[in-house]
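Exercise 7. Given the components listed, write out the predicted structure of the assembled complex. Treat all entries as one system.
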Amino acid sequence: MTNTDRERHRERETAFYLFTQQRLPACKPVLTPAWVITIFLFTGFIFIPVGLVTLRASRSVVEIVERYDTECVPEPFRIDKVSYVQDDSIPKNCSLSLKVRKYMKAPIYIYYQLDNYYQNHRRYVKSRSDRQLLHGWKYHATSSCQPVEFNNNQPIVPCGLIAWSLFNDTFTFIRERAELKVNRKNIAWKSDRDHKFGKTVYPFNFQNGTLIGGGKLNPRIPLSDQEDLIVWMRTSALPSFRKLYGRIEEDLDADDVVVVHLMNNYNTYGFGGKKKLVLSTSSWLGGKNDFLGLACVFVGSSSVILAIVFMLLHLKSRR
Amino acid sequence: MKRFVYINDDESSQELYCDNRISNRKYTVLNFLPKNLWEQFSRFMNQYFLLIACLQLWSLITPVNPASTWGPLIFIFAVSASKEAWDDYNRYLSDKKANEKHIWVVRQGIRKHIQAQDIHVGNIVWLRENDEVPCDLVLIGTSDTQGLCYVETAALDGETDLKTRVIPSACMGMDFELLHKIKGVIECPNPDKDIRRFDANLRLFPPFIDNDLCPLTIKNTLLQSCYLRNTEWACGVAVYTGNETKLGMSRGIPEPKLTAMDAMIDKLTGAIFVFQIVVVMVLGIAGNVWKDTEARKQWYVLYPIEGPWYELLVIPLRFELLCSIMIPISIKVSLDLVKSLYAKFIDWDSEMIDQDTGIPSHATNTAISEDLGQVEYILTDKTGTLTENRMIFRRCCISGIFYGNESGDALKDVKLLNAVAGSSPDVVRFLTVMAICNTVIPIKSKTGAILYKAQSQDEDALVNAAARLHMVYVNKNANILEIRFNGSVIQYEVLETLEFTSDRKRMSVVVKDCQNGKIVLLSKGADEAILPYAYAGQQTRALVEAVEQYAQLGLRTLCLAWRELKEDEYQEWSLMFKEASSTLVDREWRIAEVCQRLEHDFEVLGVTAIEDRLQDGVPETIETLRKAGINFWMLTGDKQNTAIQIALSCNFISPEPKGQLLLIDGKTEGEVCRSLERVLLTMRITSSEPKDVAFVVDGWALEIALKHYRKAFTELAILSRTAICCRVTPSQKAQLVELLKSCDYRTLAIGDGGNDVRMIQQADIGVGISGREGLQAARAADYSIGKFRFLKRLILVHGRYSYNRTAFLSQYSFYKSLVICFIQIFFSFISGVSGTSLFNSVSLMAYNVFYTSVPVLVSVLDKDLSEGTVMQHPQILVYCQAGRLLNPSTFAGWFGRSLFHLIVAAGMGPVLALKYFRYTYRPSKINALQQAERMGGPILSLGNIEPQPRLMEKEVSPLSITQPKNRNPVYEPLLSDSPNSTRRSFGSGAPFDFFQSQSRLSSSYSRNCKDN
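Answer.
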């Protein structure tokens, strides 16, 4: 072998040469019956246990859901709920009593759930100014906030429809005449508090106009500490959603009765929305949701069934 | 319209005509941006994207940041604009180089060295040997006393031989000084692009000679881009300059070719566009209804009671923007990218490097690789394409004695060598004709060896063979030829040359032996042009036999003849010849007639047989490609017998009884018509038999058939898998390509010479062989390869892979954008049909570019079958040819898949199951081969079932599918499944037959008839 030959030989080994000749090593799996049946069986045996474990975790969560929007309107006003809720002069107190069926371990999360509420409506979801939330009213380019941008030629902080429609029902929980302590701190994302909402930005000119939307904000607390607002402004993707209200940091025993005093301020009557109060414990997988477990079990079992079908087909007619 | 060129008049013509500045540029610095943008926006896709991008600037309706569309759009435009700019800049540089070349030009009577771009019409331009001609000149002086000069016209017409040019008679004998002062006027037509015609007149002003009109022809011109050779100097008057030269006028940017696949993708894009419009309308209406019924109740949305006038449009436009990603902007970029990679793979392929010359294959046109996989007809030239175009003198027959029959090489035949050594008079005369009856120009190189510049390879072979037999053509000095035979030098004076024309089929020279003053006529030509004119007593039987015997062997034959002329006979004829050569009307015909008067009563000396060997691997290549379902047509300028012989020897047609040749001939319309109908009838009958039927047609009959019986001929063309067209002209070749294209066939034309250029440019794919007839064909072609056998690899490997990959990539691009679009549409139903985007701008852009476009580019390395398997089973090409991997029904499959994946994000299980099921129980041919290839199992030979395709339908062959394939699900369905399939269907319902040439022909036949 001469030198040039060897050189050429070496050149032929390089990846680039193989690439130019379209001869890069490749893996070409063949769908043989044995392989496919094994793969399906394997998937089945992976997915079914995973699904069962997930399902078990989801089922271990205790959840209390109570719809209160109709009950909390006094009988005389039930014909015209909208005017009831819009009338400031009528007191909006309301009491619910919840019965705890199973032992609930702290922390117990308190959610309010809204149904048929389109936080994902295009007009709504765009109507905010992230810059203003961070930098305050000094930031002027807030045209995205329309139609809630200015009031009396003064900028509104926080501007936009989302902030303007802040949820303003409040809840207090009483067990055996003693008020349960509800922790309302740390309910928003840490990143939102630290980086998205300004520490020096205070509400200004908010809910001051002729059109009053939802809740009001304390103008002396900076936005980064207004956690209800921060939670509310993380808009939900679906028209039915839960938002965190607080945490009860005491265990609840079975057959405990919790009385909820609430202010039924928020108007969902105009569009037929529902309001629900949710108390829920959590597992290592989060809240109560059977979907993941069911999906895994379904995928796993269908894989096993397919494997069996293919096996029978293969035995019947060998190819 | 005429132009008058005043010779050497510095003032008059400067303003009238342009200067000699050549410009091939498309753009200038100023108009580049608008012109380029205008060109880019003339494409529908680009208009669409621009419209979308503009709509996105309206913040009320845009779902995402406008940058996510503007970014890619500007990127795409910048890329193609800078490509254009770069090309144009290179053109500018080469123009500049040509324009600034220094040329000697006469100005105010003094020779000056000026830049080529400053030459004006009427200037006298001086050239030296090996100079390039800067503009079209009328020759007025050369260094040669006879007024001759030699030019090489390769750049103009691709012919590499030297051509002689002569100065007009009026300028004969002018000396150096006079040429500086000459004045006169040339009357010539306005610039055109005909490089074979120049009808002009020259009139010199007093005091120069007479003031008669002197006719000028193309023989008196030096055209731009030719080279002056073998002549010390020459000078001429510039008549056409700059872009108005014959070359400049014929230069044109050929229309970009569009592949069948591009057309299909465009069609599918159109369908998606319609779908998109429908979706937008439905969602728009739904959105407006929802807004009026529901959204007004939702106080937190705060809809104004009175909206602006365009309020109804807002929601539909929002959805239009949301759905705009259905047509992926990335498809153009990715396709361009992978296409250029396919082309690169062809350039890189080490198995397609010509071992003799080391020249790799090259894809000039980077955009049409997929078409290679869809070729249905190959039209091939013969000489130089199938054969090597290396003519070798093999055998001869002199006065009835055969030489070279035993050894196969006359040059080594001892008998002949002895005869030469013994100066046998017959043999000497034979060799003399071989050596000097031609237009060859001998050139002495520096080492003393003699090189021959020949117009045809045949003449070259003959002269070289004569030299090997000690009859060496040494020198040509004006009209004096020098021959050295066995050491002694013999001189001849050439009196006349009767040039070769394809009508006369012979050429002759009249020479005078300088020793004894005898005048002799030497002729050579085709047998039918020589043998009938033998003198009355000559026995030509042996010669006829020789011709037949040689033709049987596929050799090219020429008959050599001579006749002694009497002095007065020659003088008398010479006058007639001069007269005929100066006529203006029907000159060629008159000359032929006059020649006829001299060329008779020949003493036929013998027959030469020249071999033009087949290139390596031609028969195998043709066989493989025919198995792949590609039809071959041979278009040649050669004569019928030779063409048929070559066709037989390269598997083009099968010998009897398997094959059958049908002849279409005739000189008149009626004859051609009858013959055509007869052939058509036979063809229809035999089309059901497994017989190789081919038709043979010659140029004359073809002319008539194309003119008067186009429909019948078209039908014949569709029925016949093989055809041989002999004696066809370049334009007829192009016409045939056009004919097949009009039947909606994908054609590939392959050739090597200047006469194939038109066919190559006309065909869907032009392949040039960088052969011995110059590079012109290779330059005009889309692909240039070194050898015919590379065609196999080009089509089966590169074409097929390119097709498969593009089919996957284009459909995948649509699939992935449909998936994300369906998600958006789905989401709109739970977001109040208000046109909210589920994804933010960055995610959308990242999805389109980083997640789905770039990784998928890896599929350019995808191979469904190994190269070896494809080569062994070329039948698999049918999938590409019929367009089975990209058509409306496969596209519907991908559409369905995207819908499915919208609902089941992790839908791989069912897809795998479906794939496996098809793979195992309903395998396509590709699957079967994949299985065989990868399991290392026996590759079922498809070859043994090939000869009887009809039998195979009945038997259950291991590779044929027994059930009808009509129930095929999404993956790779047959075309016949889809009602709106536009390409051919393959005998629907019948078992899919690999080599179903018959049903294929009949189905395509019926399709084409419907088209008519």
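Discussion: The first strand of chain B starts at residue 2 and ends at 7. Residues 790-829 of chain B form the longest helix (40 residues).
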